[in-house]
């Protein structure tokens, strides 16, 4: 007997979310799966799950932001609170994106495409990787510390959302650099989930920034009100910063590797968070 369409749709969504969580975090996901899905030996549809990546990123950023807010309420100084919030995010993700950043930075030391890919698969971290990790943590922590605690929660949520949306753009625009690995499992990227993910990222970013800047006492002014102008400006700045990071990392990956790998996606996520958080400090 075939399952009801509603049940089939729910099971499909739960599997997609489980795929996204298992890829982007170290959180347990077996509770999302039905008994049949747990028993199945079929490959998980990683490409189909991309629609939920921006939402997962927003959730991770929001959790880190909430910890920062709570630490600030306890009168902890801003910079150590920001450092602990980022450490908490790394625990949730297993440092997956930071590992990709370090590997891609180390790969820059290679002189040929083949040598760069070989270096990126080496589990050891070189001086380029250490520098990239240190600078990325410094930029993110100082940017979060520069924001008011309440706005930092929403800024981290926006940066997490846009960082994972960047992964979708790179996976859609670049070919896999290797015949195996994560990039190959995502190729070809399904267009339906891709566009849904980008739409969700845009809606989530706009809604969060609107909540961040909206003043309940402002009832006049329409679209030219100060709050709406700040919302538009912040949205454009955050999106522009994410696009800049995407272009920088994507251009480097195409030039050095001829495509993207899982490490390139991790590097793109971290660089996007650095750019978005830094840009938001200029307008908030």
From TrEMBL:
Transmembrane segments: 50-71, 125-147, 153-174, 194-210, 230-252, 264-283
Known catalytic reactions: alpha-ribazole + adenosylcob(III)inamide-GDP = adenosylcob(III)alamin + GMP + H(+); alpha-ribazole 5'-phosphate + adenosylcob(III)inamide-GDP = adenosylcob(III)alamin 5'-phosphate + GMP + H(+)
Membrane topology (UniProt): Multi-pass membrane protein
Homology family: Belongs to the CobS family.
A Pfam family this chain is assigned to: CobS
Cellular localisation: Cell membrane
GO MF annotations in UniProt: adenosylcobinamide-GDP ribazoletransferase activity; cobalamin 5'-phosphate synthase activity
A GO cellular component annotation in the UniProt record: plasma membrane
Pathway involvement of the protein, from the record: Cofactor biosynthesis; adenosylcobalamin biosynthesis; adenosylcobalamin from cob(II)yrinate a,c-diamide: step 7/7
Keywords attached to this entry: Cell membrane, Cobalamin biosynthesis, Magnesium, Membrane, Transferase, Transmembrane, Transmembrane helix
Gene: cobV
One GO BP annotation of this record: cobalamin biosynthetic process
Task of the protein: Joins adenosylcobinamide-GDP and alpha-ribazole to generate adenosylcobalamin (Ado-cobalamin). Also synthesizes adenosylcobalamin 5'-phosphate from adenosylcobinamide-GDP and alpha-ribazole 5'-phosphate.
Name assigned to this protein: Adenosylcobinamide-GDP ribazoletransferase
Species whose genome carries this gene: Acetobacter persici
Highest taxon in the source lineage: Bacteria
Primary subcellular site in the record, as a coarse category: membrane
Cofactor(s) of this protein: Mg(2+)
Enzyme Commission number, as recorded: 2.7.8.26
InterPro entries for the chain: CobS
């Amino acid at each position: 007997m075939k399952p009801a369409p509603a049940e089939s749709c729910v099971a499909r969504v739960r599997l997609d979310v489980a795929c996204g969580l298992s890829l982007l975090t170290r959180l347990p996901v077996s509770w999302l799966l039905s008994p049949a899905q747990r028993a199945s030996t079929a490959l998980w549809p990683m490409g189909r799950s991309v629609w939920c990546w921006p939402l997962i990123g927003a959730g991770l950023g929001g959790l880190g932001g909430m910890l920062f807010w709570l630490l600030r309420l306890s009168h902890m100084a801003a910079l150590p609170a920001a450092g602990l919030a980022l450490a908490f995010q790394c625990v949730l993700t297993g440092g997956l994106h930071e590992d990709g950043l370090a590997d891609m930075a180390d790969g820059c030391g290679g002189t040929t495409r083949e040598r760069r890919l070989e270096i990126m698969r080496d589990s050891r971290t070189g001086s380029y990787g250490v520098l990239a990790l240190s600078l990325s943590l410094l930029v993110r922590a100082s940017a979060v510390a520069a924001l008011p605690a309440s706005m930092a929660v929403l800024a981290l949520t926006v940066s997490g959302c846009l960082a994972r949306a960047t992964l979708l753009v790179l996976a859609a625009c670049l070919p896999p650099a290797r015949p195996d690995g994560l990039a190959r499992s995502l190729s070809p990227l399904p267009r339906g989930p891709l566009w849904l993910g980008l739409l969700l990222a845009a809606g989530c970013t706009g809604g969060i920034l609107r909540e961040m800047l909206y003043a309940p006492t402002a009832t006049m002014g329409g679209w030219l009100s100060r709050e709406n102008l700040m919302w538009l400006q912040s949205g454009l700045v955050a999106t522009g910063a994410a696009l800049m990071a995407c272009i920088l990392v994507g251009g480097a990956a195409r030039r050095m590797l001829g495509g993207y790998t899982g490490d390139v996606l991790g590097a793109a996520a971290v660089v996007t968070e650095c750019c978005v958080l830094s840009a938001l400090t200029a307008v908030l």
